[in-house]
Each structure stands twice: as structure tokens, then as C-alpha cells.
Amino acid sequence: MKIAVIGVGTIGRAIVQSLIHGRYNGEIIATRRRLQKIEDLQGLGVKITSDNSSAVKEADIILLCVKPRDVKAVLSEVNEEVKGKIVVSLVAAISLRYLKRIAPGARFVRAMPNVAVLVQESFTAYCATEDITEEDKENVKGIFSAMGKYLEVEERYMDAITGLSGSAPAYIFTIIEAMMYAGLKVGLPRDLSLFSSAQTVLGSGKLALETNIHSAELKDMVVTPGGVTIEGIYELEDSRIRTAIMRAVEAATQKSQKISAEIEKEQ
Ligand SMILES: NC(=O)c1ccc[n+]([C@@H]2O[C@H](COP(=O)([O-])OP(=O)(O)OC[C@H]3O[C@@H](n4cnc5c(N)ncnc54)[C@H](OP(=O)(O)O)[C@@H]3O)[C@@H](O)[C@H]2O)c1
Question: Which whole-number Å values give the CA distances from 127 to 29, 87, 200, 238, in the listed order?
């Protein structure tokens, strides 16, 4: 299957690179207006163009990776060429209903990955319009599997997914940065501090996923009576870290809902 990636910025580029990393055997066409920014992809066998219409015409599956406010212009531009094709929108806050309204002839999958697609470790949640067949889904899942893990969800969860796993790499990087500085404060060299922080986040996530043990129980495996860790936990609880993270996810979810309402109202 030929894939056209429309809007190759951060996420579009990461997806193209993941497909190449996963030895995708179909043709990949990448588009953006400032073509010089993706010239390097040609060396990886990717066809580049700033002509969205010709890219969509050639492709079987279209991955839409532009910002929410550019969706209407781009889909209107390719309205004819996109008819009957599968469009996977990776765009935050834009509903299937809105996509279908702009390009009624296309069949849509709405997906929310995260920036870990850069290392093929994204979590991608997706939902689809009713005219997407099981065979279409298998083709799309082939793309998602090159990006990391994926799961089909009901569309009503997509704003919450955007606020949680779509945005959470930024929260986790804030935590990693704080841990790294904490290491400096207690006298660790910078490289050692960063490596031990990031590897600990990776290992903790892996442990939670692979053992399926509740995180409270895993935490108790580290916190021994009268030990070192309970001193750290005491300070963390006093700083209300749980509320801080819950508020971050809630605020991002609400923002996604707000953008969605604003854009849909404009039409
Ligand atoms: N970044 C993340 O972590 C993340 C995670 C999940 C989902 N997303 C979603 O992914 C989408 C893209 O995000 P991003 O962070 O990758 O943004 P980005 O880096 O700004 O990429 C968007 C790209 O769209 C291109 N573009 C704009 N108008 C275009 C047009 N008419 N034709 C072709 N290309 C066009 C821009 O390049 P030119 O200006 O050169 O055309 C730009 O490179 C957003 O909708 C976002 O919600 C992002």
C-alpha cells in the first residue's frame, strides 16, 4: 500500500522514520510546504512533494499530521482525490464527525499517538468511522504497530487520551528533568544523574506493564519500614504530586475539548 503523510513535522517525520525502521515495503510520500526541511528523507527512499493533491491521488492510505487549525484547508484542497480512500488523522481534538463533514467521500480513522513514536514506543489510541472495514483496520494497524503499541477505543475517550498519553511525555520529561537536577543537588555528575533518572522511569514503566502488579503494591516493594525511600515519599506526598499530575491531565483534556468545540463552531 502506498502511504502519503501530509504535514511532515515532528509527528509526521517520526511516523515516516518508524515505517522505514520497520522495513515498510510500500511507497511513502511525504508532504509539507517548506520542502527543504524534509529533503533528507529522500535519501531514505521517501518521495517528497509540497503538492498534497498529487500525493493523495497516488496513495492508498493518507496520514494527516497537520495542526488542528490546518485540517480544513488541507482536506478541502484534496477533497476530490481523497474520495474512497482511508485517511488516518493524527490530529488532536478533531472529531470523526468534523472530518467527515469536510471530506464526506473519505473514510476516517482518528488516532492519538505520542512523541515516543520517535523510538517506536508510542501508545496510539484510535477509533474509526463505520465505513472503515476490518481489512482497512488491519492495514492501519500495520502502520500503528511500526510506531509502538496501539488500542482501539471509543471516540468519547479521545480528548482524555490526548490529555493523558498524548501529552504525558511532556509531564514525564519534566519529572526526568527534576530528577536530574535533584541528582545534581545531592552531588551526582550530570550524565550519571540524567541516565539514572531516565533509565529508572523506563524500568518502572516496564515493571508496571510486564508484572501487571498494581502500582501501589510495586511502590510498597521499594518503601521499607524506617528506610530511605519513605523519607522521599513523605516529602513527595507533602508536595501533593498526585494532585499536580491529575490537574495537568485534566487541564490538557479540557483544552482538547475546547479546541474541538471552537473549531467545529467556526464551520
Ligand atoms: N507533537 C506531538 O507530541 C503530538 C502527539 C500526538 C499528536 N500530535 C498531533 O500531530 C499533529 C502535528 O503535530 P506536530 O507536533 O508534528 O506539529 P508540527 O511539527 O508543526 O507539524 C505540522 C506540519 O504540518 C505542515 N503543514 C502545515 N500546513 C500544511 C499544508 N497545507 N500542507 C502540507 N503540510 C502542511 C507544517 O510544515 P510546513 O509549514 O512546512 O507546511 C508542519 O511541518 C497535530 O495535529 C498534533 O495534535 C502531536
Answer: 24, 12, 32, 40
- Residues 238-248: pLDDT tens digits? 999 999 999 99
Coil, strand or helix: which one is 186?
coil
Q: Render pLDDT for 35-92 as a digit per residue (tens, 0 to 9).
A: 999 999 999 999 999 999 999 999 999 999 999 999 999 999 999 999 999 999 999 9
- Ligand 1 pocket test, candidate residues 29, 36, 67, 71, most atoms within 8 A of CB: 67
Residues 239 and 145 in one domain: no
Is residue 89 included in any domain, yes or no? yes
Ligand 1 atom 9, closest CA = 91
Distance 114 CA to ligand 1 centre (A): 13
Pocket lining: 70 vs ligand 1, CB cutoff 6 Å: yes
